[in-house]
Amino acid sequence: MIVVKIRVVSTKKEIDEISSNEKIIHLAFRASNIDIFRLMENCPMIRAIQLPASYRRTLSKASEMFLQMQGVSIIEGDVWGHRKDISDYYNISDHAYNRMLQLSSQGLGAEEIAEEVAEEIKISPNLVRYVLSQAS
Length: 136
Prior knowledge:
Blueprint: E1 2-9, E2 24-27, H1 33-42, E3 48-51, H2 53-57, H3 61-69, E4 73-76, E5 89-93, H4 94-105, H5 110-121, H6 125-135
Parallel strand pairs: 1-2, 2-3, 3-4
Antiparallel strand pairs: 1-5
Helix pairs in contact: 1-3, 4-5, 5-6
């Protein structure tokens, strides 16, 4: 079972092909203000956008403010091992999600859980923190 599906968008051209129901998107390209606005226009249900660290640092303040005003979280991280030719989605399994909840029930804090799960399952610590915040 898949708990979280992240739509991986590799090129600017794909923005127009994305389903309007997407909630979490990983942008694998350096997005301009126009790309962010088009993305939000095409996918009004987005709750989070994940960007690699190098692209996150170059995101304009205008885009950051716009996303913040829309209630969209910006997550810094990558999708290690994802092959776009196999699937458009990067999935976080119920196993990974249950591991996060298990560690939480043991009294670990979000930072400790993020570090441990990120190492075990090879997902971004920031993504783990986001998933935990949505589970609460």
